[in-house]
Amino acid sequence: MDRRLHGRGSLFDTDPPGLAARLVGLRPYQLRSSPYEHDGDIPFVVFAGGRGLGKSALLTELRAAYQGHTPVALIDGEEPQFAGPPPERPGEAWSPLAQALTTVAEQLAGPVKGARRISFPRLASGLLAVAAGGWSDQDMPRMRQEAERILLLNDSRSFLDGFAGRWATKVVAKLVATMSHTGPVVEPIIEATLEAFSEGISPNHRRARRAATWYRGYPNAGGNPKLGLILLSGHFRADGGSRAHAERHLVRALLADLDDAYAGIVQRSHRLGRPVVLVDNVHAPAGRNFMECVLRDRTDGIRDQVVFFAALRGYALPNSPLRPSGGTSMALRNASRRTLTEVARTTGWEPGASPSSRALLVSLPPLTPDDTLHIVGAVCRGLTLPPQLPHATHRLTGGSPLGIALLAESARQNLPRGADSLGALLTGEVAVREDRDGRPAYQELLDRLVPGGRLDELTVLATAHDRESALALARDRLPDGFGAAGVLRLEEQLSEEGWPAAAGQFVGDPFLRALLLLRLHHLDADHAEWRAAHRALIDHYGERDTTDAARYRLHHDLALGTVEFAVTHLRDSFPETDVGQWLSSLLFIASAPYYHAHDPEGRDFDGGHDHRTAVALGHTDAAQQAPEGVDTVLHLRVRRLLHAVWQLTDPLVLPDPQVADRMRFDLEQLSNLRPETTALLWRASRDWPSDALAGRPLRIPRDDEDRGHG
Amino acid sequence: MAARPWRWLREDVWEIRFRRYVALLLAATLVAAAVWGGLRLAREDRSCATGVAHPKGSGDCVGVSTTAYDFGQPRFTATARAIDRENHRLKPGSYVTVALLLPFTTSAPASLNDTLHELQGAYLAQYQANHGSTGEFPQVRLVLANAGADGTYWPRVVDRLEEMSKGPDRLRAVTGIGQSTDNNKKAVRELTRRGIPVIGSSITADDLANGQGGKDPFPGLARVAPTNTDEARALASFAKPAADKALLVYDKPGDPYTRTLQDSFKRLMPGSPNPEQPFTPPADRTQEGTTSNQFRQITQLLCSTPKSTNTVLFAGRHTQLRQFINELGQRGCMDHRFTLLTGDEGSYLTGDSKLDRKALTGNLSVRYTALAHPDAWRKGTVATGGSASDTATLDELVARGKQAPVGPIGPIDLDDGQLIVAYDALRLAVQGLREATPSGATTPPLADVVNEWAFIKGQQRVNGASGWICLDVHGNPYDKAVPIVELTPSGGARFVRIAWPEGKPPAAACLPRA
């Protein structure tokens, strides 16, 4: 079971059974049945989460876990094949959903142990009727190719039936024959198709004949399957709401064919569990339309026995203005919402009246520090790891499976080359696959986390703290065309993709922000962009005179390597400011990114040596001269503390235990200077070193928490 | 590695119901086949041949063989094949079956020889009966019945024989029987009780005969050999031993044979001054045991008798007889001449390698009544009771029996008389069966055969190779010729002369006293 994903046991467990086993009725990776949790109605499971949370990996793993044991199909709504019709194929005879159904059926027909290939006569005849709407006698090869692909769906490919596809070829020949004369295309095709199905030249003709009559039930068909198919084809071509109607029937045809494959004692005695359909990026049109059809049918009482697992980027399906069918889109508003850990033993799901209530939205939690430890350990087997690396990795990535996996891979490749910090691992080159050249890890990560343009803009805006500063930055540093609208669009995109918002940061997710800032820093050789962005923000905040503005300004000063302003501010404000606020200012200012040493002008000068440790440990104190009239001890202490916090909270370096110890001492000493709030500083002196070393974020202790908090 | 087949079974077979059912069906079939095969194998184990099987706890092949099965004794093979060949030659419906009940699985060399000779004799008689110039019916099918080396399994053999008498085998008589042991007696009693005629070839015991004390405990039993009493009478007429010259040595407690002989001897010598000397052999009389020791002491006693005591009457079985003779060969008084007289058990010693032949050269002659002897009629000294021509018929058959089409039936030895009496017994059986067959029918009713024996006399007598066989109303031969033979140091038996139970040969009419 080495393949099992870390931290996803709630889904893949076998004993007691996890979510997958309970829904599919089969243990993952094993051909052994498992009791069902939902007997009649099955929830449409939607895994929700931002990029990099491992949704796609989860679906891929589900497919691996069930492939060969039960029919499985995995489609990705964002695949190029669903984006638009292939060239030469008219759009009126093509839709993302129809394409998705073809792909899904082809995959479901894959070999399953102990059972014969599933055939899809209903779906095939429906798809054929739809495709016929785009055929003309001008383009025979294309028509031949399309028809054959669709007809192969009806191929049960049993050893009794001879060679695969012989039947399909025969029918195609028949269809071509009907095309030879001019005139309407759809009707003769449908007629020939139905004839082929019902005449018994089909491999398993009894089933096929039954299937051929299925379209009798199409509205207004009047019991005539041929008319039903003609209407279906017409509706599909008409686009708009009627296409959605036709699509629903196609989905229904797929599910009916699947049900047929599971009907009867003989069939059931060959099959275990339920078929599984996996839809990645379900928010994309192909997936979304598919899901809507299934949910609506289930709401209408048309039951099926298919287990759907879908992956949704973000946490809600927004009301899509792009959906052309007018008013039929849905937002999963009434879906039950759970976290993955909550559904580990039972879903507690009950269908409601609305279609969206048929869905079960399962959010994927980030991985735990332990999972991180296991993943890094597994990838870097045989390497001596710096002891804080797994925890620091978790702190940097916030438990993002993608981040952890890539950093672990980078550690495997770069630790032997001398990399010693997370920053070095991120900038170090990683070859994701053996046949690919290495690229810096952070670029590899950003490509996956922020695909498809706007990366450059986001890179600059990552330094901003809110919409206002972002707009200011855009005005100053981004092309004119981008403007305020661009900022707002990016903001919306971030939230749609499930990135969390955070106070005081335009890019809320610390990991993404760290990567973007790293990219900004490395945009050009002399870091001009980097410095310009920070200076722009310093200017922006320099115009304001609030405490917050001062903090932001000092933060960016620090990012540019100017320490003195921050030290002065903290030193001077220490006696009067509320200790909690002072600590929070300290933390915020010290959260400034630190990219290997800068001189006062912000330029590298010592080739990557981190001087914060030396300062924090007091090695440079002797050379420091406090300004006139200033308490030298306090000055030096604040300076040391600032550097210590800066070093310990820098997600890109490993926390230094010596620095943590020194920080504890300095905080203790500071607490003596503010007798009225000693407890707060004392608490911080206790919590911060251990939190820092364990890779936890440092928190401002609250007054009422000063006791008993560990 | 053991997990993989298990996982395969658990997941790829058991979980998929269709495969599970197929596998279960297959497994059930396999188990059934295994059970059936096992049972069959187990049964096969018990079986030796068609109709013959090991009883539980015994190595003997017991039952009635209708094939060429030789009971695992190579010396029987040729004859068994000849019999099977002859049986197969018979047309369905033209024959009746006669069973030859003998201890075919015995391991004692003497008994084996006897059994072989009886088998050969019975076959020759069968061949003669089926190939007679007159083509009389019914013809005879011969089957071999074995109740174990010591006859322990007689009940199952009797059951089987009864079944055959009622079924298409049409069994109408059982011949052979062999020695007069308790088991044989029980078998004969049961067979006759169930109405199956029995013809004893070499049984001589008085209590395995009808008419003793006026009772017929074995209705339908006919005998070829004279009773022990008759033998003893013949012996007595031969030796006319004076009471004061004889000493009786007898088996105590004895079996029917020895007791008969003992009683007959006692009657001959009322008031003998010499004490009777008992000995006690092992329960199985074929075992050596420590009886020699007893004989040595009896020998010493003999030596202490006056010189006039020159006759020893021995009532015992052949193993003990041999031991006694061997001891006598070592006796201290070699100058004291003795003649040892005994019954037909003496005939076993002719082929006995354990016999100390030198003993016969030291003033000791051993004479015994033989059942038959090939030289008995050669001189043709008597006009009635038997004839040389009857012997010649057998001799000719024996000669033909050396090769096809009659034989081969293995090495033939007539000296012990077993072949002759077995031949005569089957001839007697054939005579009875044919006489009992109503004209126009091919098969005699069983009951008629039972009643037929009383008519075998006078002109209907059987002119046996061992002498005339005229049966009295009890089925015992009347005044049957008893050859007295003497054991020779070379291991053979020298014919001395014929003795008659009645003291003289029967009249030409050969009608027994009422």
TrEMBL record, chain A:
Protein name: Uncharacterized protein
Provenance organism: Streptomyces colonosanans
From TrEMBL, chain B:
Keywords on record: Membrane, Transmembrane, Transmembrane helix
Membrane found in the keyword field: yes
Gene3D superfamilies: 3.40.50.2300
Region of interest (Disordered), ranges: 266-290
Biased composition (Pro residues): 272-281
TM annotation in the entry: 21-39
UniProt KW Transmembrane keyword: yes
Protein name stated in the entry: Leucine-binding protein domain-containing protein
Organism of origin: Streptomyces colonosanans
